[in-house]
Amino acid sequence: MSLTRRTALLGGSALGAAAFSGWSAKAATAALPREYPFTLGVASGDPAPDGVVLWTRLAPQPLAPDGGMAAGDVQVLWQVATDEHFADVVRAGSARAKSEWAHSVHVEVEGLLPDRVYYYRFRVGRQLSPVGRTRTTPPVGAPVSSLALAAVSCQSLPAGRYAAYRHIAERDLDIVLHLGDYIYEGRGPAQPSAGPDRRHLPFKATTSLEDYRIRHAQYRLDPDLQAAHASVAFLCVPDDHEVVNNMAGDYGANGNADPETFPRRRAAAYHAYYEHMPLRRSSLPSGPDMSLYRRFSYGDLAEIRLLDTRQYRTPQVDGPTFQPLPSDAYDPDRTLTGPEQERWLLEGLASSTARWNVIAQQVYLAAIDMDTADGQAYNTDKWDGYPAARSRITGFLHRQQPRNPIVLSGDVHAAMVNDITLEHDPTSPVVATEFIGSSISSGKGNNALFESALPHNPQVRYYNGRERGYLSCEVGRDVWTSDLWFVDDPSDAASRVRRDVSYVVEDGRLGAQPA
Ligand SMILES: [Fe+2]
């Protein structure tokens, strides 16, 4: 990104009187914030051929429980232009920022042209937001030659700074997939390795709506995260830490949460997640429920199915995280997706005509035996802990052979390139390729264990759990190229970000090869 563009994207300001032309009709506003309200930046998400979601939240005091806003709704004006100076405004309107949604705004713009770059901004009174840049998707089914995407996950604020996001903001990507752990709900360390300013707020585990709002606002104040959101549309799905570690359906961590109170906590967490993500109205939470799995088309080139592997999940089997699977783990009723989402996924894949069929989700789908000797031990929180559900997916891929299945995952805090095999036996047929792009900042506590298990897992073609980073993919008609990027110093926002390796998948050929 040029210096000019970065300045434009980050520079909110107050308007001079002459600058009010091109906005929609003057809107009635109950209680205008006196201080600058766009402290959390802007974002776009869930792009379509004719539109995109534009997001902001009014929060003059972002770390205050109410964001520093008086009770009552506020009208927010918005504009979309073809140029970053807003000489050519093509859409404009107003949206209501409601107290009950923390004065967040989710504008679903329609009537835009496909496959175009647009710029957008918001206005309240004389206060103008930073400018965001976004892009609509190509027409459904239209011939498309390339797609550039990044996949990110796991951005613990106390664990590191966001050089990876700075790097993403400087690139010209079409979309970013956020695969979860956008926030961490735990109290975190009193003296964070990334610096005292990264200590979690509130300094306790988040349980109430107020807690989750403050935690999201604290993360979103990071300038590199704001710059990434302002530069490219995100497709966001949560994992567990947006609510609680190892969440499974109606249960908190490992089934230990109180079933009386957990639905209230999940409702609070999803409410705050919606308030801070550029999601469509179709994802508006209702109590503890939120509709998150969904599909994106990129012309005839790619279909991306985003999964929700937490909300409809059967609890993990009892016992340690890594264990030989007990017989009850094989119960065919045990699920990560729930039957409805599983049917949606498999039926969608069966009828897809896309060249690349992407399954973007949270926990790794590859089978990985973590026993470092001759026994077997599987992580009960991953697909490995739900072998019947895993077999239904891999069996389908093996039988039906949808064209070029690519799985993009998060959660594990390690960069990986995996052959996904039909069975747990790594010599069984390869059915898809999985790419995981390490974590933006979260540490890898059990890296030594992973490294010592690698010799038993030849299907793990590449592994790096020591470094933080992200994945980017250049999708062409004949070749998919995945680049694994790493941050030299995770405590330094200015750190160099370097590409370590690239792997390719060729059209019609299962399995990744080093580029
Ligand atoms: Fe994580």
From TrEMBL:
Annotated Pfam families: PhoD (PF09423), PhoD_N (PF16655)
PhoD-like phosphatase metallophosphatase domain sequence ranges: 149-484
Phospholipase D N-terminal domain ranges (all copies): 40-136
Organism (species): Saccharomonospora amisosensis
GO MF, one annotated term: alkaline phosphatase activity
Enzyme class label: hydrolase
Origin: domain of life: Bacteria
Protein name: Alkaline phosphatase D
EC numbers on record: 3.1.3.1
Keywords linked to the UniProt accession: Hydrolase, Signal
PANTHER family listed in its UniProt record: ALKALINE PHOSPHATASE FAMILY PROTEIN (AFU_ORTHOLOGUE AFUA_5G03860) (PTHR43606:SF2), PHOSPHATASE, PUTATIVE (AFU_ORTHOLOGUE AFUA_6G08710)-RELATED (PTHR43606)
Extent of the signal sequence: 1-27
InterPro entries registered for this protein in UniProt: Metallo-depent_PP-like, PhoD-like_MPP, PhoD-like_sf, PhoD_N, Phospholipid_Metab_Enz, TAT_signal
PROSITE patterns per the UniProt record, alphabetical: TAT (PS51318)
